[in-house]
Amino acid sequence: MLKGLVTALHVIVSIALIATVLLQSGRSAGLSGTIAGGAEAIFGKKKGLDEFLGKVTTIAAVVFAVTALLLGLWH
Known about the structure:
InterPro entries: SecG
Main location: membrane
Oligomer: single chain
Shape: elongated
Largest sheet: none
Transmembrane segments: 52-74
GO cellular component, one term: plasma membrane
Structural class: mainly alpha
Number of strands: 0
Membrane topology: Multi-pass membrane protein
């Protein structure tokens, strides 16, 4: 029964991890990234949602790793 709960938690956390990574704003590359980096230095970095999604991603990644290790040990 405990293995089933850990498996369900693992699936839910993996979906949450995918969603939070996809919702984060991407890092630009090339010339447009250079221009955006200069604008970021002048006008400041975008805060709020990106910081929240970063924290949620970190927590989800840790829970994902722990549940993966538990499931690996039970197998």
